Amino acid sequence: MKKARTIDWKSYDPAPFYDELIAAKNKPRPCARTLTSYLAALDSDEIQTRQQAAELAILEMGISFTIYSEGENIDRAWPFDIIPRVIPRSEWQQVEKGLTQRLTALNLFINDIYNDQHIVRDKIIPKYVFANSKNFREQCQGFTPPLGVWAHICGSDLVRDKDGTLYVLEDNLRVPSGVSYMLENRHLTKRVFPELFENSTILPVDDYTNQLFDMLASISPRPMDYPKIAVLTPGIFNSAYFEHSFLAQRMGAQLVEGADLFVDDDDCVYMRTIHGPERVDVIYRRIDDEFLDPEAFRPDSMLGVPGLMRAWRKGNVGLANAPGAGVADDKVIYAYVPDMIRYYLKEEPIIPNVPTWLCVNKPDREYVLKHLDELVVKPANESGGYGMLVGPHSTKKQRSEFASLIKKNPRNYIAQPTLGLSVAPTLCEEGLEPRHLDLRPFVLQGVRTYVTAGGLTRVAMRKGSLVVNSSQGGGSKDTWIVEEDA
Amino acid sequence: MLSRVAERLYWMARYLERAENTSRMIMAFNSLALDMPRNQSLSWRSLVSVTGMEGIFNEHYQRDDERNCVKFLIADAYNPSAVASCLRAARENIRTTRDQVPTEAWEVINELYRYTFENLDTAISKRGRHAVLSEIVGRCQMLTGLLTGCMSHDAGYDFIRLGRNLERADMATRQIEIGALQLQVREDDNEPYEGLLWTSVLRYQSAFQMYRQNVRRRVNGPQVVSFLLQNEPFPRSVLHCLNEVVTALERLPRNSVPLRTALQTARHAGEADVHQLIVDDDLIDYLDRLQLEIGELHRDIVRCWFPIHEAA
């Protein structure tokens, strides 16, 4: 249990970064005024008592994530900071519009490249960009899933720079995780600070699982009131197993593993139940494409269901997200999203991209190689914050390693400026300290589009660190979208 | 209900019941050991052998003294029937069926698991043993109560009921066996302690009070055996448990094979003539046969509903 020594709001100073709660030393932002004055009135002991109460609740409720260490998997208690991050509703409405716009364009793009490829013919995006993307699936060509939607669930990462501008840092269209922690964080905050919810208007987040159920039901091949929905998990050893189970439970869906399902001669998917086989209409799969169906992808996969792709292409089962949707996770494709928005929707992007240099283009590459000490270099197809170079924090040796990696496979690398990620007051061993954070809202697209009110705020708990992933020492905060007082 | 989920619920209930029964058994034996005169020491090994794990015990221990036996029965991870191992397995099975059981059940098992592993050393020690084991028994019962009171009594619950009662019946036959072994090796100077022994067998099962209310005679071997075997109203008697198994089976689909085996096993428990078995010196063999039948019933359940999966 962590022990904050002093909690002194007066001397808290986020400079030189943008702080989510404090505009400048001793000046809270209007949206955070209620929160900060409430917190400032609590003494250090009281704050620590509440932090400890939250940590105890996390253990009791078994909110955990799993990490691998020396061949064993260990359940770690979910790291949570009780001080929420606050965003004014007026700003959030723009973000909602921006995310809806973005996911709409991405779905049009994915459907286009698996079919007629207008965007290539019109020379907006060169073909090589997706043709050799690691997540482009030939097996999906010439097919349009119900509603034309491929990425039904998207978790986009947003970051705020020094000047307060929000950027989309990446789109996660494969199996984005974290939404259960967003819901549990709210649950915890209500337990820790019930008084605050009485006196302010904080938008609720609890509706997510209902929205998820409705969206999944909307892609069922059989129109009925209660389609059979299953959440397909790789099993208890997966780091997000807690979330798979949580979502199944909240939706009243079956939590299944690959071996629970089979595809019969009629090309329909069935689960093995105590009553015998029972047909499944929609699968919310939390298994990567490659493991989904050993007949279509990796033949050695033990996690998937043989024949699943066949059943899907016949229209006998809905799959969310559709296989192949991850093609747009590629960070080279990411760079083209603003162009996609303009091309498909004839609109200007509402939320900007982080400026991105594509190492595959010669002028960009030369620039990147010259400025490695200032830039963040990322591989195009990794997630979880692995395999990247943070220029300003790197050694000469690391930079020369990356230089040769880039020269060897330029298609696989992009670079972005090092952003001064925004911070928020966080309880640390040193006391109340600014820590960097990002935000992952979740977007659902079926017949309609739904954006969560806020999302999962992830915090880099180590001083100066920019790495927010929970597998690498990141924590989290509740995220409040608040109605500002007039 | 998925076959895999049904299987995990079934095993969860079995492991939970086994943890509770083993804890009870150690507590009652412990209290009996304190009552015995110094020249009449009890064999702790007999506790190990009734759990059917003597082979594993022999692989790890040379001496079958109290400490080794108790450590083996409570804490040793390589003993799959040790209290700690059972709770670990029960927790793992709940963890993987969290969407099926009430949320509180997960919280309780999680807490119980943490409590047990934090207090293993105390549980093995002579002085702390009783307190820790009663806490474990209490929390197991809390969990059982929670499942009974807060979970829909649908197919999932029927599998829990199956597991719980099958395990309870099995453990009851083993506990009767502890007493029966003493009947077999009866020596004359042992007799004053026979009452004590049977009282402790009753106490394993929280049955002492119910026995007194029902039997109204001094505690003696044959009466205790028939009470624990055949007293239908008593919820820990073998017959009662097997009838519960029958009721749960009747509610499940495609049940004909296991149901037939269960009815037959219940008949064999209910119709046995305990006095004759004792006179013929056949009680131990009879109990072994009953255990084999219960094992057969388990295999029928597995074949019928859990065709492919292995539970934790």
How would you characterize the overall build of this protein?
The complex is a heterodimer of chains A (486) and B (312). By secondary structure, chain A is α+β, with helices and mostly antiparallel strands. Chain A is built from 15 helices and 24 strands. Among the domains of chain A are: 222-316, Rossmann fold (3-Layer(aba) Sandwich), CATH 3.40.50; 358-417, Dna Ligase, domain 1 (2-Layer Sandwich), CATH 3.30.1490. Chain B has one domain. Chain B contains 16 helices and no strands. Chain B is globular. The chains are: A alpha+beta (486), B mainly alpha (312). Chains A and B meet through helix 2, helix 9, strand 9 and strand 11 of A and helix 1 and helix 6 of B.
Give the rounded overall mean pLDDT of chain A: 90
What is the alpha-carbon Rg of chain A in Å? 23 Å
For the termini of chain B, the CA-CA separation is 18 Å
Share of residues in helices of chain A: 25-40%
Topology:
The complex is a heterodimer of chains A (486) and B (312).
Chain A: E1 22-24, E2 27-28, H1 33-40, H2 44-61, E3 64-69, E4 72-77, E5 81-88, H3 89-114, H4 118-121, H5 128-131, E6 153-160, E7 166-172, H6 179-192, H7 194-199, H8 208-217, E8 229-232, H9 241-251, E9 254-256, E10 261-263, E11 269-273, E12 276-279, E13 282-285, H10 289-292, H11 308-313, E14 318-320, H12 331-334, H13 337-345, E15 357-358, H14 362-370, E16 375-379, E17 389-390, H15 396-408, E18 413-417, E19 423-428, E20 431-440, E21 442-445, E22 449-451, E23 456-460, E24 474-482
Parallel strand pairs in A: 5-24, 8-9, 8-13, 13-14
Antiparallel strand pairs in A: 1-2, 3-4, 6-7, 6-21, 10-11, 11-12, 15-18, 16-17, 16-18, 19-20, 20-23, 21-22, 23-24
Helix pairs in contact in A: 2-6, 3-13
Chain B: H1 3-35, H2 45-50, H3 54-60, H4 66-74, H5 83-95, H6 103-118, H7 120-124, H8 129-150, H9 155-184, H10 194-204, H11 208-215, H12 221-230, H13 238-250, H14 256-271, H15 274-279, H16 283-305
